[in-house]
Amino acid sequence: MRSTTLGSTGLRVSRIAFGTWQLGGDWGTFAEDDARKAIHRARELGVNFFDTAQGYGFGASERLLGAALRGELREHRDELVIATKGGLRRTGTGVARDASPAALRAGVDASLTALGVDHIDVYQVHWPDPDVPLAETAGALKELVAAGKIRHVGVSNYSAEQMAEFSRTLPVETLQPPYHLFRRGIEDTVLPYTHRHGIGVLVYGPLAHGLLTGTLGEDTVFPADDWRAKSEVFRGETYRRNLGVVHALEEFAAFRDMTVSQLAIAWTLARPGVDAAIVGARRVHHVEDSLAAADLTLDETDLKDIDSIMVAATPVAGPSPESV
User: In this predicted model, what pLDDT tens digit does every residue of 59-71 receive, in sequence order?
Assistant: First the structure.
C-alpha cells in the first residue's frame, strides 16, 4: 500500500483510507461480522488510515470501527490514523448542522468514548453551519487541541472562502471534499487553495456513491432505508445516461486489466492535490478490489481518454445532511 504525508500535518497515511459511512445505517442493512472482516483485511493489506463520523448512525459507525480495531489500537496506536467528524445532531425529523462550541465539545467526548481512544488524530467539522460563526467553531476546536483530545483539525464540504475565514482563528490542516469522475467542482478553487496552504486533502465518494462500481443497472432497486432510493441521481434519464458512461469506462478499464472501480479510484489518486481517497467496503473482496487501485498508474494519454468519455456524463451531486 502506497503512503503519503497528509498535507502539513506530518501524519504518514495510506493513500486509500477505509471509510465507514456505509456502516452507519444510511446505506441499508449489512452484516456486522462481514464489516469487521473487511476492516481487518484492510489493515492486513497496509491501510493505516480510517475515516468515520459521529453522524454515521450517531455513534454506530464509530463503535463498530473502534471494536474492530481494538487490538490494533492497543498494540499499534501510533501507526494508526483515526479521523472522525462532528457538527451534526439529530432532530425530531432528521439531522441538522450544529457546529456550536457546546455541541462540538460534547461530540468529541462522545466520539472518544465510541472509538475507545484517548485522542482523535484528525477531527473534522462535517458540514459548515451557517448559524454559527466560523470563528466560534474554530475557537472551540483550538481549545480541544490544547486539551489533548484532538491532534489535528480539518473540515469537510467547505469552500475556499470558508476555509480562509476558519483559518483566521485556527489553521485548517485537512479538507474532506466530495470528488469523483462525475463531480469535479473542487478543481476550480478548492484544490488550488489547499495546495497553496499545505492543506491535506482526503476525498470522499470516489466511486460516485456506487455508480462507478459497475454493479448498478437500470433494474437496480435500492432498499427503502438506503438514501439513494430517494435520490433523483439514481433514477430517470440522467441515471440511464450516466450508466452508459459507466459502461464505456468499463470497456476502457477492461482493456487495461482493471475493474471500473479500480479505474475510478486510480483516477482520483492521480489528480494533483489529492493525498488520499476514502473508500468504503462491507465485504473482504470489495476491500481487496479497491486497494489494488493504489498500485495502478494512469498516464497522460489515459487521463485524456477518460476525459473524452466523461463528456457525455451528467454531473452527480451527493446528499446533504438535510436530505439523508
Answer: 999 999 999 999 9
The SS3 assignment for 156 reads strand
pLDDT, averaged per 10 consecutive residues of the chain (324 residues), comes to: 94 96 72 91 96 93 95 95 96 91 98 97 97 98 98 98 98 98 96 98 94 88 81 87 95 95 96 95 87 93 97 87 68
Strands 81-86 and 49-51: parallel
Q: Among residues 75, 63, 77, 84, which one has the least CA distance to residue 18?
A: 84
Three-state secondary structure along 70-83? HHHHHHCHHHCEEE
CA-wise closest residue to 195 among 163, 166, 153 = 163
Q: Is 221 left (phi over 0), alpha (psi -120 to 50) or beta?
A: beta
- Contact by Cβ (8 Å): 228, 234: yes
What's the chain's length in residues? 324
Q: 3-state class of 68 per DSSP?
A: helix
Query: Which among 6, 76, 14, 87 is positioned nearest to 295, based on CA atoms?
Result: 14
Give, in degrees to the nearest 5, the angle at Cα 83 between 79 and 84. Answer: 150
Neighbour-count burial of 235, counting CB atoms closer than 10 A to its CB (0-12 exposed, 13-18 middle, 19+ buried): middle
Task: For residues 318 and 324, give the distance between their C-alpha atoms in angstroms, rounded to a whole number.
Answer: 10
Q: Is 56 a catalytic residue?
A: yes
The dihedrals phi and psi of 111, each to the nearest 5 degrees, come to -70, -40
Residues 6+ positions from 207 with CB-CB distance below 8 Å:
180, 213, 261, 264, 265, 279
pLDDT in tens, 276-300: 999 988 889 889 989 999 999 999 9
Radius of gyration of the chain measured on its C-alpha atoms: 19
Q: What pLDDT, on the 0 to 100 scale, is given for residue 285?
A: 86
Catalytic residue among 56, 123, 158, 193: 56
The 10 Å Cβ neighbour count of residue 96 is: 16
The C-alpha atoms of residue 171 and residue 87 are separated, in whole angstroms, by 18
